[in-house]
Amino acid sequence: MSSDTATSPVPTVPDARGRFGDYGGRYVPEVLIPALDELAGAWTHLRDDAGFRGELGALSRDFVGRPTPITHAVRLSAELGYEVWLKREDLAHTGAHKINNALGQALLAKRLGKRRIIAETGAGQHGVATATACALLGLPCVVYMGEEDTRRQAPNVARMRLLGADVVPVTAGTKTLKEAVNEALRDWAATVTDTHYIIGSVVGPHPFPQLVRDLQRVIGDEARAQYAERLGGDPEVVVACVGGGSNAIGMFTAFVGVPGVRLIGVEAGGRGMNLGEHCSSITQGQPGVLHGAMMYLLQDADGQIVETHSISAGLDYPGVGPEHAWLHDEGLAEYVNASDDDALAGFQALARTEGILPALEPAHVIGWLLHRPLPEGARVLVCLSGRGDKDLDTVLAALGSRA
């Protein structure tokens, strides 16, 4: 967390106004500005504070299990014709990369003297990670979750409640992640004096996209060093799934602007490219404002946010983090999409060839690779952002319906 330029030749943003080029910023009620100023100031100080970094580093090692390894996917590589390595965030405590951000923000909240934590979650992994961090640090926790997602991710709802969190189903709109974020923001506006909102992805008003990016960059920093140690040099292609985009930003940050390295984000293509059938915010969306920031959004001709669909609850969001929008516009990263069927194929392929059940989010990446879109023999590093036990009911139901 010491320097944006420590591992990448391209300085990363935001600027002093919290903008990544035209994206990001603060589009929030005035009541939240003092809290955002307080948070930005605290993070500017603590991100390089030896005491904070030491406390977070010790917990990341002893509680989370960092560093997570990279694994050569030998049989998948032989099948695809690429040399595929996996960054194993599925092996972090709670089963996904989300714990890196949740633990860091919970520690930050304690430093700020906040007595209560709120969060939103889609697939449940951020909710589980936040509930876990709060249990560890003795902080009360409320998690907002769309009612539809509580049905799709019932095991994670049970985990959060066992960890002591109050899970609040949100029944508005599509009853998914967008509505859960709305409710969390309403709660925060009313309780901002003693409550910290742990946003789960690189979205929201400044400084959240930067804060979450800084806490997730451990993924890419570790992966780049591990790859160089095992193989020498850098991979030719780095690939990660993109919903809000936290695991992808965490992975990409170490490689932005590195000569010879292609960064590819895989969005959820859902059932097809008609509006309402997918979550491909960059490849199919237009700039607009959602949840306090300018970003690429899926919207209709009147600028209204449209309903979205993905088989993965974690990717079911109509926008994308502002730094991804900037990386896209600057040509520093490429964005593609993979369908629900691709994700199911990727899930099965990784299980069959490597003995790993991936979450449906990174299964989109494996499914995209199955189309062989890269040159034969390419050296590919994939962020395996989470494990798939949370998605078994969804996968089995989908496969059963097609039998």
Topology of this structure?
Layout: E1 19-20, E2 23-24, H1 33-46, H2 50-64, E3 70-72, H3 74-80, E4 83-88, H4 98-112, E5 116-121, H5 125-137, E6 141-146, H6 147-152, H7 154-162, E7 166-170, H8 177-191, E8 195-198, H9 208-216, H10 218-231, E9 237-241, H11 246-252, E10 262-270, H12 281-284, E11 286-290, E12 293-297, H13 322-329, E13 334-339, H14 340-354, H15 360-369, E14 379-384, H16 392-401
Parallel strand pairs: 4-14, 5-6, 5-8, 6-7, 9-10, 9-14, 10-13
Antiparallel strand pairs: 1-2, 3-4, 11-12
Q: Would you tell me the overall average pLDDT? A: 94
Please tally the β strands and state the result: 14
Shape: globular
**Largest β-sheet summary:** 6 strands, mixed
Taking strands numbered 1, 2, ... along the chain, how are they ordered across the largest sheet? 3-4-14-9-10-13
Order of SSEs: EEHHEHEHEHEHHEHEHHEHEHEEHEHHEH
Question: Any low-confidence stretches, pLDDT <50, length ≥5?
Answer: 2-6
Structural class: alpha/beta
Number of helices: 16
* Rounded radius of gyration (Å): 19 Å
Distance between the termini: 48 Å
Strand proportion, as a percent range, falls in 15-25%
Helix fraction? 40-55%
Describe this structure in words.
The protein is an alpha/beta fold and 403 residues long. 42% of the residues lie in helices and 17% in strands. It has 16 helices and 14 strands. It has helices at residues 33-46, 50-64, 74-80, 98-112, 125-137, 147-152, 154-162, 177-191, 208-216, 218-231, 246-252, 281-284, 322-329, 340-354, 360-369, 392-401; strands at 19-20, 23-24, 70-72, 83-88, 116-121, 141-146, 166-170, 195-198, 237-241, 262-270, 286-290, 293-297, 334-339, 379-384. The strands form 4 sheets. A 6-stranded mixed sheet has the order 3-4-14-9-10-13, with helices on both faces. A 4-stranded parallel sheet has the order 7-6-5-8, sandwiched between helices. Strands 1-2 form a two-stranded antiparallel ribbon. Helix 5 (125-137) links the parallel strand 5 (116-121) and strand 6. It is globular, with a radius of gyration of 19 Å. The termini are far apart.
